[in-house]
Amino acid sequence: MTESKKKFFSWLKQHLLLNLGFAPKLFGYKDEDLYRLTQGSLKKYTNGVEYYFGLRLKGVEQTVDDFPKKLVRHKLIKIMHAPFVRESYPYKKFSKITLGKWTRDKILTRADFNPWHRIPKAVKLASAIGAQKINIHAIDLILAMQSDQLFHELDKLSANQNIIISLENNARTPKEQLKDKTEWQAAHNPIKLMEYLRQNNLENFYITIDTAHLAAAGYDVAQKWEKIKQFMHGDINTFISHFHLVDFKIKGELEAEVPGRGEIGLHVFQKIITDLYQMDYQGTIGLELAPLYFYRQRYKLIFNSLKRYVWPFKDNLREEEEYILRAIKLISSDT
Questions:
Q1: Which of 49, 187, 273, 292 is a good FRET partner for 309, with 20 to 30 A between their CA atoms?
Q2: Range with the lowest mean pLDDT among 8-12, 51-55, 278-282, 313-317?
Q3: By C-alpha distance, which of 34, 33, 41, 68 is closest to 313?
Q4: Residue 207 near residue 194, CB atoms below 8 Å
């Protein structure tokens, strides 16, 4: 490996997090499994995990003891993803109920619907387990009652709790946007969101760029990325604190994909990673991956999940490690 490659991978390890998404509890992974994934061959490339609130069969965590104990003890949870709720637009699009939508509504979105209750509690819990940041969907705040006041209250609370709030751009299709109010654009347009944060002097707020959500909102991801860089005049650390690098495909509904397997294009992810390295990006990067076999060979996904629930012995997790390592090397191969 050349000296330049060594420097790049040293930088990548400082910023790249395992983004295990909704895989852990729903698909039978145990707390010990999550910890072992951070300590095996992936330790060379990653610096901890992004952990998602509420993605377990028991529902949303209420205390520190509800989180994976080894991840907490070793301070491996760098960023928490706020509890999921259904997006509360004043009108709803009627559509066929699919298994994915049913799962989200009945299993993944069981948090308190009121953002004035839900989000401050999540901020405090994230801080209590030693996370550096909390990732919150921008729409959770933009559609809240007395939204501007909630932004300022959370700005103060997060500063007191010594935790950064990173707002993620939402997936809002161009067709859905036709009925939206102008001020709602900040939910899916990172530039509008950055303008809002600057105009309101929200010093403890940053943003998360989710590439799949950009694509779902009708943006050309490569072009949008160039406009985002232009807006920040080269100082990427002014507003951006986190990334969700994830490809996407539309198959009846929005679905995440492994970078290079969807419609965005592998070269776009490679360009983003290269730019972040060259611009001395100091934030975190979540390589967001669906569970192994989630989109292909689902019978293996089901079999492995059931086996984890009943099998008393440890899984060696080799397949999961190889799957994640392939994705890391793919997005890094052009740097």
A1: 49
A2: 313-317
A3: 33
A4: yes
Question: What angle do the packed helices 3-15 and 318-332 form, to 10 degrees?
Answer: 120
- Whether 206 has a pLDDT exceeding 90, the answer reads yes
Q: Which domain holds residue 67?
A: 3-332
Cβ neighbour number for residue 116 with a 10 Å cutoff: 15
Contact 33, 315 (CB under 8 A): yes
pTM (two decimals): 0.92
- Write the CA distances from 70 to 38, 49, 167, integer angstroms: 11, 12, 27
Give the residues across from 207 on adjacent strands. Answer: 167, 240
Q: CA separation (Å) from 330 to 18, 265, 304?
A: 15, 11, 25
* 146-175 as b/e: b if 16+ CB within 10 A: eeeebbeebbebbeebebbbbbbbbbbeee
CATH code for position 242: 3.20.20.150
Instruction: Let me know: does 171 contact 254? Beta carbons within 8 Å.
Output: yes
b/e per residue, 225-250, with b = 16+ CB within 10 A?
beebbeebeeebeebbbbbbbbbbee
Range ranked top by mean pLDDT from 12-21, 222-231, 289-298: 222-231
